[in-house]
Structures are given as structure tokens and as C-alpha cells.
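Researcher: Please generate the 3D structure of the following complex. Treat every line as part of one assembly.
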Amino acid sequence: MTNHAPRRTILHVDMDAFYVSVELLSRPELVGRPVVVGGTGPRGVVAAASYEARRFGVYSAMPGSTARRLCPTAVFLPGNHDLYVRVSRQVHEIFRETTPFIEPLSLDEAFLDVTGARRLLGDGATIGRHIRERVASVLGLSCSVGVAPNKFLAKLASVAAKPRVTPERVLPGFGVFEVVPGREIEFLHPLPVQALWGVGPATLERLQRLGVKTVGDLNALGEVSLVSALGRASGRHLFALSCAHDERAVETDRAMKSIGHEETFARDLHESGELRTELVRLSDGVASRLRGAGVGARTLTLKVRFAGFTTITRSTTLASPVATAAAIISAVDPLLANVDPTPGVRLIGVHASNFGEPVEQLRFDDLLAQTLAQTPDNETPDNETSHPASTDWTEATVAIDAIRQRFGDTAIGPASTMSATGLRLVRRGAQQWGPDHDREQPKRG
DNA sequence: GGTACTCACCTTAGCTGC
DNA sequence: GACCGCAGCTAAGGTGAG
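Model: Done. Output below.
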């Protein structure tokens, strides 16, 4: 059998210290200094660190308190998610000058399939250098580009292209790094095994017990041993990667499979009433995004993290997809009622999945479920916690969406989420890196 | 001692229906 | 009727990425 498909050329473009670099555009006096963007509260984490801050061992997802200890001279900035979204769109506009085949991974990285652009624009490395120059000249930002025949190798190549940090200084990177076709294994096998997509701390520990340190070690172990050690999916996946095999296409329009919001509180909550207020707020945010996406969800999941950091999830699956706050609350409220908050709750979350066409009419199953729930044996003691997912809410929801579209997100919201300073609504990325120092929390009583 | 948020995917266990 | 195997679904927890 012959394969006439042309060898693909995939680029992985990764912005360098993206959030910090965007902040420095408006604060040039901070260039060259250690700068950290992230949550400013005691429970915040680092979202991005400048390369100067990385010299001190500060890195993403590190607790803010640890970062302050390691680098007390760093400038800590709270971050502006909306601004990063806007700049990210501008970066993608530059990508689109080269190819329409773009798969965003996050605000600061994306895969580009430039196979079709090679004849016009040159080879992958040439296109990579062109994109780097455009991003620098138009936006004043720096990025690193990996070039390879597949997504997995392109991602690793962009890491190789990045600036390097030693405790003494920051060394410039290659900017563009290409994994030359035919030399994939030579590039891949010496790398540490945690370079593979899918090897996190837990898998790394298991692999280390098997004596695996590098990608080459993992490959030598063989697929059968890996499947027996890590399970079928992970074993096969990692073995394929260790052979440099990755046939996944650059997907330009991936359908979302779940939508959720979760929030860590500045202080632990101990009372059901406080938690329910937060639950209403989160449910409203999830419902709003579901409607924005034009979908409904059948499965609703409540997530609770206790003061001791143990986390539980409780979920329920409805007969038909819903997209209103009332319906979501009526689904997750009974789940919350079974959680004892007295040890202290530091986080709650609401997640929606199992998407379908939103159906706001009650189906027979829902009616049956509601009827069963209202029988004497199952009667809810507190009527306020039992909201029917009825059509009564549909018109109100349409009106809410219209008001928010016209007057902004905070124009209207659940009364229970009202505070002295106004509505506290949930928006994606609003509390991306933990609670702020001064953010208002629900009061006791 | 500290440890965010969002999303995807996997594993395991239990239940139900055939 | 009891039991078994299987498939499909759901719930819960875990892992990993960015």
C-alpha cells in the first residue's frame, strides 16, 4: 500500500511569558525586572512569570506565597483576562495571514497546519520566522515556534525554541526550532519522559518505578508492558508518541463538551446558606454560557473542595438538556443539601456536560421524577430548595439574556447574589488565578 | 506550610436490561 | 426462578494540559 498524502508541516506557536509580556507593553519601565502575573490573594497562584522571575525558580501554577518567598523583589500584578483575550485575537489575526487551519490551545498557543502554504510562502521554518517577525513588529510581542511533521513533535520543538533560564542569566532561544523529517527519533528519545503529553506527576512516578527516565527508555519497554503498567488507553497512547506517531489533525472547530465554573473562596465557608448563594451565582454563570453556546446540558456536576483539600464530586443526569439557571439550580441544589459544610468548604464548582438541544418543556420523565420527589417519602423539607425546571422560567431567561446583551453582564442577576457593592456575577476568567485580597465574600448570618 | 480555573479524557464500580 | 455474561449507562474520582 502506498501513501500519497503529502508530509504535513505543523507549527506550534507559543507566546513567550504571554500575560507578563502584554502587561509590559503598557509598563515599559518593568522590562528586565522580575514580574509575576496572577492571583494577588493568599490563595492565589502564579499565572505567568517573566524570564527574570524564573531565574529565582518562580513558575506558573505556583502558589503566590511561594513565589513571593522565592523572589521578594518581583513586581506582582493582578492580571487582566479580558485584555489577554483581546491581544490573543490580534495574534490569531496574524496567524490567519498564513493559514486558515488554526487550532487554538489556549490564549497563548496554537497549532497551525501550513502544509498548503509551503508552495507560496516557503518551508515550515521560513513560515515560522515570518510569523515571529509579524507578531513582533505588529504587536511588540515575542513568541517561539516549533516546526514538525505532527502536532506532538511541533509542541516539543517549540519548547526547544524557547529562551533558557539559568540562576545567573536569561539566554535567548532559537526562536524557531524544526524537527527535521527523518530525524524525529534522534530528537525525541533523549528527552526526559515527562516531555510526553500525558505524563504528569502520577504517571511519572509509576514510570520511574519501572526504571524509565527518557522517552527512549519508555519506547524500549514496549507497548505490552506499558499497557499492563498504565492501562490500555495511556499505554497505547504513550507508546505511539514514543515512536513519534501522532496522526491527529489540526482541528479548527472543536465542539465543546463541558462548561463549568468553580471558585475558591478567600475564607472557608461553613454554612449551607452561604454555599447556596454561591451555587446560585455559579449556576447562573454556567446557564448563561450554555445559552450563549446554544446548547443544553443533561448532566450537572457539583464539585466541593473542603478545607483539608479533599475534593468530592456529585452529579445527576436529567431526562432532557436544560440551559436555565433555575433548572440547573434545581438539579444541583439537592446534591449540595447532602454535603456537610461544617468542616469548612474552600471551593465549590458547577459543571454541565452531556450536551444536547436545550429542551425547556418538561418531558414525561421530568414530570415523573418531580412527582416522585414530591411524594411524602421524598418530600423536601425546605421548599425553597426545590425549584421546578418549568417553562415559566424560559421567557424570563430570554429577557435576562436580552438585558445583559444590551446593558452588560451586571445589569441583572439573581437577587441572592446581590451584595452591598452590586451584583457578583460569574464570568469566564473573572477569578482565573484565585480570590483577590480585597474581594468581597458572603457575610455570615 | 502552601496549592486557581477550565476542559478533556480515562478508569473503576455499580446498576439495569437483555 | 436463579444464574451468567455482556453491553450500555451513570456516578465518582483521578490525571493531565495550559
